[in-house]
What we know:
Elements: H1 12-15, H2 17-27, H3 32-36, E1 42-45, E2 60-74, E3 81-88, E4 94-100, H4 104-109, E5 115-125, E6 128-132, E7 135-138, E8 160-163, H5 172-185, H6 195-200, H7 206-214, H8 219-248, H9 263-270, H10 277-290, E9 297-302, H11 308-321, E10 325-329, H12 333-347, E11 364-368, H13 374-386, E12 389-394, E13 408-414, H14 421-428, E14 436-441, H15 447-453, E15 458-462, E16 472-478, H16 483-498, E17 502-506, H17 534-543, E18 551-554, H18 560-571, E19 577-580, E20 593-598, H19 606-613, E21 623-629, H20 636-646, H21 650-660, H22 669-672, H23 687-703, H24 711-720, H25 723-731
Amino acid sequence: MSEPATVDTPLKKLVGDKTAKALASYLDLHTAGDLVYHFPRRYDERGEHTDIRSLDVGEQVTVLAQVQRTAVRPMRQRRGNLLEVTVGDGSGGLLTLTFFGNQAWRERELRPGRWGLFAGKVTEFRGKRQLNGPEYVLLGEGGEGEAAVNDEIEEFAGALIPVYPAAAAVPTWVIARCVRVVLDTFTPPEDPLPADVRASRNLVDLGAALREIHRPSTKEALYRARRRLKWDEAFAVQLTLVQRKHRAADWPARPRPPRPGGLLDAFDARLPYELTAGQRDVGAEIAEDLAAPHPMHRLLQGEVGSGKTVVALRAMLQVVDAGGQAALLAPTEVLAAQHHRGMLDLLGPLGRAGELDSAEHATRVELVTGSLGAAARRRALGEVASGAAGIVLGTHALLYEGVDFADLGLVVVDEQHRFGVEQRDALRAKADQPPHTLVMTATPIPRTVAMTVYGDLEVSTLSQLPRGRSPIASHVVPAAEKPAFLDRAWRRLREEVAAGHQAYVVCPRIGDGPASEDEPPPEDDNGRRPPLAVTEVAPLLAEGPLHGLRIGVLHGRLPADEKDAVMRSFAAGDLDVLVATTVIEVGVDVPNATVMIVLDADRFGVSQLHQLRGRVGRGSAAGLCLLVSEAAEGSSARERLDAVASTGDGFKLAELDLEQRREGDVLGATQSGHRSHLRLLSLRRDADLIRDARAEAITLIEDDPELTRNPALAASVAALVDEDRAEYLEKG
């Protein structure tokens, strides 16, 4: 009898060196525990179809399908034959499998009527979806209900067939076979979930859940297994967040109460417009937090143009009134410089301490970026170190050694998703005591994401737009199907310029040269042309449809002073059109810009498109956003663009964005460099479960703050939310 396997047993002891090496190399699976927690992506059922029509070109897929017909024909370019096998999904969807070379044995094996799992990369040839030389395993001799009869497919003997996240070198049936071998001797760990929680929430025990998720006996058993394992993920995250919040409540911070008759009152008196009710309410919440002896940790979310910057500035002025300094960290020099100009304009004499026209209780506003000259940098750093600069704005240059504050009381992080957690924490570490922290984002955050990622922050939302903001109309321009629509888009842009307005043209790529932070990674080789680039599009527009207009170029590879000069020229109205990358995505504010044309719009994410179009319609004239794409009608990319065009509700779009992204990314998997630990939990579909897990976590942590009476649970949480990710949650 084989020795029992535990979560720590190396796979090479169970499945052999060669297979273990492949699992480690391609899927990062090293132990029995790694494999047992490598859950199926989905389950196919014998006789039921996989929807072939929904497959995207370039996708690595495994489909359950039935052979319809085979055909052999000679190859045109070289000697030998080509075997084409047409498989169907039972609903009319067809997929062609192509095999090169003389393979008569394969033709005999792939007889019409046989069912199998076929794995490969989806390509397209003459309008037909196909898999070239796919891996496959057949599920019996003929009938869809016939049991598998050989050892190779014993793991598929049940009615529900698990389909695993796989690699070309390690297809799903190899993983299923390895799982069967491991489960035959696997001893599950002690169930870490307290018995009273299991009973009150009607959750199955861990051992049963781990077995049923891989080899489900019934659909009901599978549902119960998945629910238990989802609970473990949600509970681990919520326990971590609630624990962090509980500890943070005991940290000391210097209170920064409002000072009557100070800078903040003077600023409010000179504001040229009235604050919205939302701005006043959120401002009152922040003012109360700042006056407390514990550090504020608040997330401020609001649609593009909802007035977050004014709310943040009022908080900064309250801290300056209380004798401290406030720092704002922006993701780009363009945005940092714009914040600097905007705040100086809003403050007027209140931001010019030491100058002839300064107000009586003025402060100084300093900009610290990497492109400052040596003399200007020395002067700015001196103002920061002495405390003369009450408000300090900058990019990650604020994090460098040599940038010292006299008394840092508030850190404002703008567009926090653009920063790594280490960068944000480095700025907070520049204070003697933990400073108050305000995190801002213009990307609306779905409720479950806020609960799961920002659960240790208080969340404030600005939902009102200030008076005077104009509506933005959005339309998809199908360039491939209707080229005349694209011609009309350029004419529409010219009409806006002729009316005295300005326009943006956005491209997904800069152009030749190394990649930059504001362009997406290179595309794969699925036959699509490279994304359009700013440096290539700008001259074509200048010579073609936008001939005679004043065109500027802006992207992340330009020197900082050149970027600033271009932005200033555009803001001053000296340029008609700005051809740019997503460097304009956040914070750029030119009220006279009324139209934006986004080229290759399908290459951008939903939230990114929503952010981009928020750059127009910021004045009294209505905004227009045209999303140009070659994506085919009915494709997932086109449906995504249609959704963006159909609504201006950022929260609806945020839910759609969440649905289409890898959900693990919200836990910082991409930032921390680790594999995502949200294997089953869906932040969109499991909102009720997450809410229940949070309620149980709050009850448990109030009774046992450090989980000292629940050591198995503490160990489980540490495994599911490892130290790096716990720090991400804490610093987020």
